[in-house]
Design goal:
347 residues, alpha+beta, three-stranded antiparallel beta sheet, 13 helices
Length: 347
């Protein structure tokens, strides 16, 4: 069997590793030195610092001792333990200011966004563009990605409210509702396009590899979906939303690779991808933002400005975050293709 050629690259600032093989990208991260910072004083502040950096803090909580001292306690795997000041997580805060996490969501997102921004057409060698790269992932990718995202949100809801809010900003009940209705409309058009055949004089259509009598189409295909869709609208929390989407997805007939993706999902994908990429560039790469008045902001003001813009552009304007990312790269003199080439040379 022919071995797939791999290209590997590593960012020397944040440790993001890019592995590109067969047109697919994966990413991990390694520790890198950075300017030291002071460990937050209170237990709650330490937990919040980890949360801001994207670490899962669902198993951590603050505890006060009888003598007034504060401790960060871990309840991972049902085992209680107090985290000492020299715990690896806290050492990472003091060593580099932001916490390294090999499975950090935003770093994987950054790898994806950089690949989409840099990818060029094989024949004309011109950039394909982020929108086209998203479409090339195929129709079914949006549902797989959505279920993975909602599952992650369900786990962090109530335990890690800051990260939950960031991730729920774009992939939320409203977007999911639009995806469900978009799918039902797409299915309607697909069924209408199928030719009518007859079996002993009774009309039927072949839909999704199955022969269905025309008079049974509504009951077999559309009625279950129309019952399942409202459950998404009335979901009251992350767990109910995930459950409703999973049940709707289980009823779906799979669509072709080139079927048009839901515009609401595409916009949300651009918004969250650009947001986490900019956040990562600010935290680990020394990049900063230029505000609407042309003022260069420092690291902390850049993160605050980014958060404000994320709130402003969260409802159908995720594409504006992508435009903001491109401007940020330009303002900081970053050529994505050259940056990836530089990482490859330092692997």
């Amino acid at each position: 069997m022919r071995k797939t050629k791999e290209t590997k690259a590593m960012c020397p600032q944040c440790g993001t590793k890019l592995t590109i093989a067969g047109g697919k990208v994966s990413a991990t991260a390694d520790d890198t030195p950075a300017k030291p910072t002071k460990l937050p004083g209170t237990a709650q502040e330490r937990i919040e610092a980890l949360s801001r950096a994207g670490v899962d803090v669902s198993h951590l909580f603050a505890m006060q001792g009888s003598g007034g001292g504060e401790y960060v306690v871990s309840n991972k795997g049902g085992k209680l333990s107090i985290l000492a000041d020299d715990d690896p997580l806290f050492r990472l805060i003091t060593a580099q200011g932001d916490v390294y996490n090999r499975r950090l969501f935003r770093r994987w997102v950054m790898a994806q966004m950089f690949r989409m921004l840099a990818y060029k057409d094989y024949l004309c060698r011109e950039p394909v563009g982020v929108t086209e790269m998203i479409h090339r992932m195929g129709y079914e990718y949006q549902w797989k990605m959505l279920l993975d995202e909602l599952r992650a949100q369900m786990k962090m809801a109530g335990r890690d409210p800051e990260n939950f809010a960031d991730r729920n900003r774009w992939f939320n009940r409203k977007v999911v509702e639009q995806m469900a209705q978009d799918y039902i409309g797409l299915l309607n058009r697909y069924v209408d396009d199928q030719p009518v055949k007859k079996c002993e004089g009774v009309p039927y259509k072949r839909v999704g590899g199955e022969n269905i009598f025309v008079h049974d189409l509504h009951e077999r295909l559309f009625y279950p979906l129309n019952v399942a869709a409202p459950r998404i609208r009335y979901a009251k929390n992350a767990a109910q939303l995930y459950d409703a989407v999973k049940k709707f997805n289980d009823l779906r007939m799979k669509m072709k690779q080139d079927a048009p993706q839901c515009k609401a999902w595409v916009d949300a994908y651009k918004g969250t991808g650009a947001f986490y990429t900019m956040q990562n560039l600010i935290r680990f790469h020394g990049c900063t933002l230029v505000d609407e008045r042309g003022r260069r902001l420092d690291k902390h003001k850049s993160l605050a400005y980014l958060a404000d813009k994320a709130e402003e552009y969260c409802d159908g304007d995720g594409w504006r975050m992508l435009a903001m990312l491109k401007k940020m790269l330009d303002d900081n003199g970053i050529d994505v293709a050259k940056k990836m080439k530089e990482w490859r040379s330092k692997k």
